[in-house]
Every structure is written in C-alpha cells, then in structure tokens.
Amino acid sequence: MAIFWQFFKAERGTVIVWAAVMGLIAAWIASVYPSTAASIDLPAWLSHYPSWLRAMAGPIPEWPSMKAWVQIELLSYLQLLLAYFAVALAAGIYTRELEQGTAEFLFTLPFPRWRIVLARLGAVAMQSAVVHAVVYGAVQGTVVVLGQPLEVAAYLRAFLVAYAVNLSLAAFALWWGTFFSEYSKAVVTAMLIIVAVCLFNLTAPSSGPLRQLALWNPLSNVNVFHALWGRGFPWADLAVVVVFFVIFTGLALIRVERREVYS
User: Fold this and answer.
1) Total of domains in the chain
2) Which residues contact 254 (CB under 8 A, 6 or more apart)?
3) Phi/psi at 166 (nearest 5 deg)?
4) Cα(238)–Cα(201) distance, integer angstroms
5) Range of the domain at 175
6) What pLDDT does residue 263 have?
7) CB neighbours (10 Å) of residue 182?
C-alpha cells in the first residue's frame, strides 16, 4: 500500500494537469452544442467524411441532441486521447526505474517484484479513474448549465466503458515497457502500435478474416456508443477487455521477474 501511494503522489502533478485540461476541453465541447444544433445538419455533414472517419464517429441515432454531439465530438476519440495518459504512466513503471538507475534498489526491497509492479499499476488505474471522473463531471456540469436532459446513467455507462479500455491499454504499455531500457522509446512505440491498431479497426473490411482479427482487440470490441444510447451494458465485449488486461499484466509480471536489473 505504501508503494501504491508513493507512486500515486509522485505523479499527482501529471494527473492534475491532464484532468484540468481534459475537463476544460470536455466542458467546452459540450457548451458549443446549442449553437451547433441550430446551424449544422450533423448526419449530412458526416456523410461527406471518409468511411473510416464515419466509423470512428459511430452511428448517430438522433440529432439534434446533446448525447449525439458529445458522442461525435468527444467520445469518438476520448479513448485514444486518454490512451496516451495511461500509456505514459504505465510504460514508466518499469522503464523509468531502469533509466534513472533506481531499479536495482526498488527490486531489492523486501517485497516480491510482482507486488511492487501491481501496486504501481493500481496507482495508474486510480490516476486514470480520477481523470475520467473529472471529464465525466465536466460534461454533466455543462449539461446542467445548458438546461439539457441530465442522463446520468447513460453517460456513466459510456465513461465506464472508456475507462475499462484505458486499463487494458495500460496493461499493454506495462508489458511493452519491459522490453525497453529507455522510457521515451517505450512510450512512443506503444502509442504508434495503438494508433495503428485503431486505424486497422476503422479500415478493416466489414466481413472476412481481417474483420474477425479486428474484433479481437479492446479498441474495437467495446462499443462506447452502445452504452451511451442505453442499449444495455456490453458485458460480453467487456470480457474481452478483461482478458486482455489479465494477459498483458501476467506477461508483464513474468518479464519483470525474469529480467536482470542489477548493474
């Protein structure tokens, strides 16, 4: 528990900055809705976009509505944007210690390595939860100020799905970081892989082997929009995210246990 709080407090500045920036962006996006609803035919506007961009936006069940606006302008890329936050913190759990020369000290503490790594991954999960909660609160607060329908449960479902995906990406970044000794290389390459997977999901054919491959990753398997529009919580899809989280966390722990850190 001490390691958990040590790592959580060590990154509090990063968490505060990300939460403040993302909260302001979310509030600004939501506040633009009234003027946009009166001047833009969103479905017609989206019809001129390439198919992969329309896929990223998701289906728009009703327009004008605050939910449709938040979906297209925030939730469509929120997971990818917050992915960098989770990746930057999780990849540093191991690589920063190597880069700063503190790994030898850290892993000679009277605790198993796996407990140290899990404690720090738990801190990343808590930090990510704080950022997601601030963004959720900013959207809901703006909805109240604008006098729009306050659909607490719908937005909460959508943000919980986004948070679950964020955790699976953090586990991937933790595992990926165990192959590097330089923090910057671990973060940049992990983000490039995530962006590549996201683009693959959006451009993959609607059927066939490539579509099946696209379905077996957390970035495409969990439908935030499905949750937002009240069509039930995607428990089956979330199971894939949980499996990815467990697999990558387990692989990372194996790598940490086996990798030599002594100079």
Assistant:
1) 1
2) none
3) -60, -40
4) 17
5) 2-258
6) 47
7) 13
In the numeric block, the tokens 């958990």 are attached to: 4
Surface-to-core class of residue 153, CB atoms within 10 Å of its CB (0-12 exposed, 13-18 middle, 19+ buried): exposed
Following DSSP, what letter does each residue of the chain receive, concatenated?
A: -HHHHHHHHHTHHHHHHHHHHHHHHHHHHHHTHHHHHHH--HHHHHHTS-HHHHHHH----SSS-HHHHHIIIIIHHHHHHHHHHHHHHHHHHHHHHHHHT-HHHHTTSSS-HHHHHHHHHHHHHHHHHHHHHHHHHHHHHHHHHHT----HHHHHHHHHHHHHHHHHHHHHHHHHHTT-S-HHHHHHHHHHHHHHHHHHHHHS-SSSHHHHHHHSSHHHHS-HHHHHTTS---HHHHHHHHHHHHHHHHHHHHHHHHS----
Residue 101 in domain:
yes
Per-residue pLDDT at 77: 75
Consecutive sets of 10 residues in the chain, 263 residues long: mean pLDDT of each? 75 90 92 83 75 69 80 78 87 79 62 82 93 93 88 85 88 92 91 85 74 68 66 72 91 82 51
Does residue 263 belong to any structural domain of this protein? no
Distance CA 227, CA 75 (A): 11
Token pair in block for residue 237:
């899809």
Burial of 236 (0-12, 13-18, 19+ CB in 10 A): exposed
